[in-house]
Amino acid sequence: MDRIIYTAMNGAARIAEQQTVLSNNMANVNTTGFRAQMSMYRSVPVNDGTSLPTRVSTVAATPRSDFQMGVMQSTGSPTDIAITEGGWLAVQTPQGEAYTRAGDLQVGVNGQLQTAQGIPVLSQQNGVIDVPNMATLTIGSDGTITAIGAGDPPNTVLNLGQLKLVKPDENTLVHGDDGVFRRVAANGQPAPAMPVDPTVRVTAGVLEGSNANAASSMVGMIENSRRFEMQMQVVKDADTNEDRANGILSIS
C-alpha cells in the first residue's frame, strides 16, 4: 500500500512542478524576448541491492527553453532592437556575462545603456556603454551606437561603441532566475564568455515578442489540474483500501 501512495505522490509532485513552469510561461506571454520554458525529467533507477534494477523513479531536471522566434512588433523607438535568429545580446550581471533576446533598451539613471530590467548592455570591448545626457541615439544594423548630443548640430555625431552580439550554441544556454541566459559547459560549470559574431544583425524600432503561447499554456494547466486530482484520488483509494483491510483483520 505504501508503494501505491509513494507512486501517486511522486506523480503529483512532478505535475505540480510542471504547473509551475506553465504558470511562468503564462505570466510572460507579453514579456519582450521571453523564451517559453519546458519541463524536463530524468529517470533514476531504484535498487535496494536485493533485487534486479527493474524499477525507476522520476525526478525533475533543469527546465529547458523553447528557442523558436517570437512575433516581431514594430515600435518606432530608436532604442528598441530585434536580433536576427540565433543571435543574442550580451549583458553584464553580477555573476558575469549573460545573454538576452530582449531588445527594449533604455538609458539608466547612471547614464549607461541597459535592458528594461536594468541590466547593463556590453560593448564589443566587454565594457558598459555610457550615453551623454539627453543625447539622441541611433543603433545601426551591426549594433553600432551613435548619438547626437542635446543642442549639437545634426552633423556632430558621437560614436558610443558597438553592441556585443554573439551566436552561442543554444543547447548550452540555461535560463536564470533574473530572466537572462548563461552558458553552461558539459560538466555543469559556467562556460567562458562568447566572442563577437559579426554575422548577427539587429533591426532598430522593432521588438521580438514572447514565444510563449497563452492558449497552449492554459490547456496544459487545465490538464495538469485534472491529472493532479487523479493522483490524489489514488491516494484516497489506497487509504480507504487499507482501512477496509484493517477492518477485516480485526474481525478475524
Task: Please sum up the structure shown.
The chain is of the alpha+beta class. Helix content is 25%, strand content 28%.
Which terms would index this structure?
252 residues, alpha+beta, 2 domains, three-stranded antiparallel sheet, 2 helices, 16 strands, elongated
Poorly predicted residue ranges: none
State the strand order across the main sheet. Answer: 6-5-12
Number of domains: 2
Mean pLDDT: 89
Write up what this structure looks like:
There is one protein chain. The chain is of the alpha+beta class and about 250 residues long. The chain has two domains: about 1-65 and about 210-250, no CATH class; about 70-210, no CATH class. The protein has helices at about 1-25, 215-250, and strands spanning about 35-45, 55-65, 70-75, 80-85, 90-95, 95-100, 105, 115, 135-140, 145-150, 160, 165, 175, 180-185, 200-205, 205-210. The chain is elongated. The two termini are about 20 Å apart.
